[in-house]
Amino acid sequence: MMMTDYSPGRIFAVFRREFSALTGTVAAWIFIAMFLLLSGFFTFMLSDILATGQADLTPFFHWMPWLFLFVVPALAMPLWSEERRTGTLELSLSYPVSIPELVVGKFLAGLTVLLLALLFTIGTPITVECLGEPDFNAILCGYVGAFMAGTIFLAVSCFCSALTKSQTASFLFSVLLCGLILLSGSDNISNYTALYLPQWLCAGIEKFSILPHYQAFQRGLLDTVEIAYALLTTGLFLYLTAAALRFSTSGIGGLFLPGALADRYTWKQIARLTVGVLTALWLYFCLIDAAETFSRRFDLTADKAYSLTPFTREMVSNLRKTVEIRLYVSKSEEERFRLLEQYAKRVEWLLRDMAKNSGGKIRLSIIPLEQWSNDEELARMDGLQPLVKQETGERFYLGITVSSGANVLPLNNLIPEREDLLEYEIVRAMRSVVRDRKQQIGLLSPLPVLPDPADKNNSGLMRFAQELSGDYDLLKLDFQTKNPIPENVDVLLIYHPSKIPEDTLYAIDQYIMKGGKVVAFIDPRLIHNLSGTPTERLERLSSDLALLTNACGVQFDPERSAADMDYKFVPKALDGQMRVLPRLLSIPADGIDPETPMTGGQISGIHLYHPGALIIREKKSRIKYTPLVSTSANSGMFDKKLSDEEVFRLFSTPGAEADYKKGLPEKLPLVLHLSGSFPSAFKTVPASFGMAKKDHRQTSAGDPEIVLFADSDMLFKDALYRTELDANNQHREVGNNDNMTLLLNVLEHLAGESRLAQLRTRKKMSRPLTKLQEERAKIESEYTERINTLARSYQEFNRQAERIRQKVVRLGNSAVLSEQEKIILGDQLRRDEEFKRELQASNSKLKERLQAITSRAKLINIVLIPAAVLLFGLLLALFRSMKKPLRKICRKFCRKGGRA
């Protein structure tokens, strides 16, 4: 029978026989149970996916190739080794079936068992679904990737099984070869092989590696290159399996037998095998290259996290000028820099996608860097700065320069932690270099807001202004101005206008009347009030724009600040006691409007420090009011002179709500967006202002907008950033909150760049384990209340004891203590120990109950599901082993019954 003779019927017959043999033995079910056990252990114990708080199965799929590395060779080792050892292979070939049909049939049988093993892992996504809202498209893509990785390993293991009669040798050889295929694309292997092998051979070895192809499936990407790789690699090893079997059954005996190599027939078979293998390899690499040339990638994730946004595609296709982008990437064997090298591939993919969509308007250069090379000098001249390993002085570059004409903008030290902003930063840089002029922001403030070249630390307000200077021209305006705001100011930013002169107020008013855009930061109490004399600091403690805000129907009281018991900042407890700061607010996503482009997407945490509130007292019919950030319902307004302890006490005092909530809405607006038609706050031009009365405008023209912030401290450097060591042991600034992002969004919206703001706030969909978090929050709330009650009781007892001791000190020997007072003093030491024991017991019970939530899920996936599958397999094997004896017994009884 010719090799090309394929019959689906014969293949199915082989498949049915082999599948029945595999599932009819206990070994296959032990294999499946072990796979499920290890999968559950690695996922729920080593990776502990429930501890991440996200319904993300990336850790689950991460372990799949490593499990397959040992489990699949164990499954495949008897497929051919056993037949060759027992001599049944020749018997199988005596049937009307070809070797390729046998290979495909056996392979499909093993693949079906592997598919069953994968299907039994359905408990993991079901567990995550019960506790949260996972992305099922990404999960499906992950399963496709896992199945294809298993397919490749099974084909490789079939090939190894066909080479030997020993199952042990087959297993070890399969693990070795699968391990090489798994790791051949890793940096360590690539760097090592590059020292001894030619470049073309190293590239061929890297193409064989599974990991780079598998990672795309993990992310929810379906790439035609990865699919082609899986199919072609599987087909290659199935062909090699058939070739090995054909050679071993060709009748040449053994190659190492005396006189074997003197036989012409032997050399003919060797030549046939060699030509076939070389042809298959040549065809394999040709088809892989063709697949890479005509590749298509589909982003199956629900939030399209790995696709260019329509705005980006539109922007790069409509570029008015040619943009040159250079990506500099260092090569390094240092472990701390390898993660950055992997991230560089993600950056390169994004840049290539942009270049592809630009129609030739983006010229992309990928520049690999060597230490002390001329290219390193070029990177430094382009403004890039390296990460430096302090111990050795080794430098690592990962940065981009975007240029058009004479405009060059560097993007330094790209890091995976800012991957969500990668597309935005590149697009923003391209728009900046092709723009004829930067948009201008006018800065109006009594404080020094522009960067000071002498201040290397960019302390205080200068840091926020430095952030803006990359995208805008900043123009410092005279705070005592008696002239109109310049017409070339695109957005007016007013910062803490304490003691603002009337003429300056009028200049702002008329700027709005002409359709101007205004961002204003006002504050009842500026905490970061560091510069100047004590008298000057006291004078600028508070700020407001009362005349302008009142004209818009908005009231801002500079003598009262907002407090919130739900969004309060609570430092870590010390010895069971908590310091509550109800006027230092940490506003979560619940207090932020998710519908506007200014606050949607990644805006999820705003920090405010003794803010005021923007109360809408009289709505104007032609003004639209949109609170962007608000307090919770459990909030109020308090005299700013009160201490945090006094504010906290008022929240706890029955009946006090009537005072601190009097005349206030349920939720207090902290950031307010106003748009529409505005009335002027002035009836005429002030006498000292440099403008003719006839030029005075009473109502606004165009589309003016105002965004009011009821806090100024939120823009100080210490409020925005902290410095910490990253994974590469480099000091870098890390955002404390989304305050700066909110300001940038507001400015981009007012400057007509709202689509750019939407790109920055494009959010990778967060899929929290909501039900798990709710259960944990419920338990934590219950035990926190117990602990707080215990702490309050302990504090009250200590206060009583302290009052008694002060009485004794004050009165001396003449002090007369009651029996109750004596008991309190005597019991203090015992109460201290009792409090510590109860606190420790409560914390232990809290920990136990929190662990119990996830323990059930771990028990089900690690123990119960594998045990149930193993039990099912044992019962099935027992039933099949008893099937023939039972049939004989039934026939025997039937015969006896017939005779009777």
Summary, kept brief:
The chain has 900 residues and is of the alpha+beta class. Helix content is 52%, strand content 13%. It has 29 helices and 24 strands.
Q: What would you say this structure looks like, in words?
A:
This protein starts with 7 loop residues before the first helix and ends with a helix. By secondary structure, it is of the alpha+beta class. The model has no long low-confidence stretch (mean pLDDT 82). Helix 2 packs antiparallel against helix 29 (819-899), helix 8 packs across helix 9 (167-183) and helix 28 runs antiparallel to helix 29 (819-899). It is globular and about 115 Å long. The longest helix is centred in the C-terminal third of the chain and has 81 residues, at 819-899. It has 29 helices and 24 strands.
Topology:
Blueprint: H1 8-23, H2 26-46, H3 58-62, H4 64-86, H5 88-93, H6 99-119, H7 123-131, H8 136-162, H9 167-183, H10 187-196, H11 199-208, H12 211-218, E1 221-223, H13 224-248, H14 264-293, E2 297-299, H15 310-317, E3 323-330, H16 335-357, E4 362-369, H17 374-381, E5 387-388, E6 395-396, E7 398-404, E8 407-411, H18 422-434, E9 439-444, H19 462-469, E10 472-476, E11 491-495, H20 502-513, E12 517-521, H21 534-539, H22 546-551, E13 554-555, E14 560-564, E15 568-569, E16 581-587, E17 606-609, E18 615-616, E19 623-630, E20 635-639, H23 644-652, H24 657-660, E21 669-676, E22 705-709, H25 717-720, E23 721-725, E24 731-735, H26 739-750, H27 754-760, H28 770-811, H29 819-899
Helix pairs in contact: 1-6, 2-4, 2-6, 2-29, 4-8, 4-9, 6-8, 6-13, 8-9, 8-12, 8-13, 13-14, 26-27, 28-29
